[in-house]
Amino acid sequence: MEIPATWQGQLSLFVLAGQSNMSGVGPPPELALAGSSQIFVFGNDYRWHMAQEPIDNAFDQVDYVSQDDFAGFSPALTFATHVLEEQPNRAIGLIPCAKSSSFIDEWQPNLSDTTLYGSCLKRIRAASTMGTVAGFLFFQGESDALVEPFKGQIPHHDEWANRFIELIQSLRDDLNMPALPVIFAQIGPVPAEAAFAKWETVQAQQVSVQLPLTAMITTDDLSLQDELHFTADSYQIIGQRFAEAYLHLTR
Fold this sequence. Notes:
The chain is of the alpha/beta class. It is built from 6 helices and 7 strands, in the order βαββαβαβαβαβα.
């Protein structure tokens, strides 16, 4: 689709990064939010679309490094809707970049578009012809709570904060946006599975993050559909919390 002339170059762009709880899991609720004529998504096919869940739809994926074939309902559309409720005179462009099961190490700075960081940066630059980056949303850490390596990746539960800080500082430098607002979600309720024994370590690491223009939202009071992933109702609450944190941070 073509972005309407009214909004061309005027979109407020929000990057959606992290792992599966940002990509979304499961079907939308029966009363899922409808899309808005002021919310768009820069799809995985590098084309603009009217926003609808699943936002991280893998149709005609260009950057295979972040492909999630089974992405589902996520916090993204709820986030955008709540921002527009408070600021109705803007239009929003969502840029999905998350990858299921990714580790914080996979988000470390690397300009190659075969990496999650490089692919994310490439998408931001491609989408920026239609607007300006207004915020970076991040939901990741579950994989780093693992005790043992997984799929060739080593968890960094004791170093999560430093690696996240490096990610944000590098992204701000590469975009030449030192004041880019960042909202990240702390991982949710502690799972019973022994494989995730470092869960509380990662949560503590996330609380310890100290960065300007950065806020953390909590999710550990919300309902899950399995050991790691939230219900559709919870994803809507997370989206609202992302929006409230963003609006508070940027007032």
